[in-house]
Predict the structure.
Amino acid sequence: MDSSVTASQHQQPQLPGSSAVEVGEGSAAWVRAEQVARTSYGRLVALLAESTGDLEMAEDCLADAFARALRVWPRDGVPQKPEAWLLTVARNRGRDLFRSAPVRSSVPLDPEAVEGISPALEPIDPEAIPDRRLALLFVCAHPAIDPGIRAPLMLQTVLGFEAREIARAFVLPPATMAQRLVRAKRRIRDARIPFVLPERSQMAGRLTVVLEAVYGAYSIDWDGISGRLPRAGMAAEAHYLAVTLAHLLEQEPEAWGLAALISLSRARAPARLDGSAFVPLEDQDPARWDLDLVGEGERYLRRAARFGRIGRFQLEAAIQSVHCARATSGETDWNALGRLYSGLLAVAPTLGARVAYATTVARLKGAAAGLEALDGIEDPRIDRFQPAWAARAHLLAEAGRLEEARRAYDRAIRLTVDPAVRHYLERRREEAA
Amino acid sequence: MRYTLLLHYLELTEAELGEEAMEAGKAAFHAYAEALDREGLLVSAEVLQPSPATTTLRVRNGRLQIEDGPFADTKEQLGGSFVIDVPDLDAALAWAEKCPAAEWGAIEVRPSAVRFEAGTWIPA
């Protein structure tokens, strides 16, 4: 992949419909509209789509409403309740579309559906606007939706990312991604996937998929993809989504676990780069970690633990918590990490977890034991898995097997898209010479 | 909304299946159809004869072509269908899960587009 691909007109999320409007980017009304777009996009899409199941139409209506906001707000001022304003305008647009002949002939006549998108004549109280995003998340992660398109669908409908941005993140041609997104949305409408929360008996299985997709959105290597798209922006959106999910569900320990995991991982983001140089976790200065985020993560983790039902995300969050504890204790408790990784491998033996376990083993029992653990991973994907090659290279260098270490570094460098990480690995390779 | 449950499964003759299994299968299908009917959700139910009884027809360039055998010569064959009227896909999937054939075959859950009734096409 070409990591030099840069996004010259990158804003995220892209303000829907903004390209058709001649209002200066950066004007007060534009900025306000973008703020509302960022914070309310998913809420408004979920509300507009829930009665008809038609996400495409909801997004089109909302894009129209944003376009109108950019015409009207600079002239008349930003309304006191911008979200309610947008919802009303979008609903009116939906009603107009619904009454127009071409749409009417292709949409089933359903009196409830007509009712659902009819304009609310009374002013809408934004405090009373229900949050239907949770139902929308479960729609995106419905078992009837292709697993590969679930996370992209969430990014688009709940967070308002454009298909081309998502395409870049998932290394697909933009037209292909756009087509798959449209196909998934039509499927939701045509097969009538309901905008509801799963029943209690199905919640656990369905929730896992939602949590994995949110985590997927968080851990996309945005840096390596655009070079300019701020990692912080995307991470903040996924963080927000995870925290919202946990609060809305309340009683799901794994949802709190994911909120904790993302909080604790994000807390260390400021220390990840020193200037433009990559700093690995062990060399990071804890003074540069965001201790408020650490505290937030710890609170979520304690809340998850109260339910007494451990799971993958709680274990991963606990691992991050052990790393963050270095900020106060000054050292890393590798024994605790070894136990937590063993637990994680028992419930979710992902390739990443197995590689991380091997590096923990190396810490506890020496480089040779770590290399043995790496060799024990039987998964054909490991040959193309960058963290496995980087870990192997470090351990070989530590064990004094320098020639093998250099070959492993070469392999790791070729698989690395993030320029800062690549530069770091190149430096380590030279040190092994 | 109407959904058609298309039942696909491996075709076994009565001899291959055994009388006992055959009777148990019939009883399970009966209970299933009755449950749907009792809830007022059942539009129609058909169990088809085995695919060797199928005749496939095409008209190409004005010429009639008739072949013996099914349209697709696969190991698993369309064996029957249930048309049900339920609120949404989740309800349709829940009923498909209860269909006895789910245990030994695959159930395709397909939403209806339109249906012809009393001289007009009605959206599903």
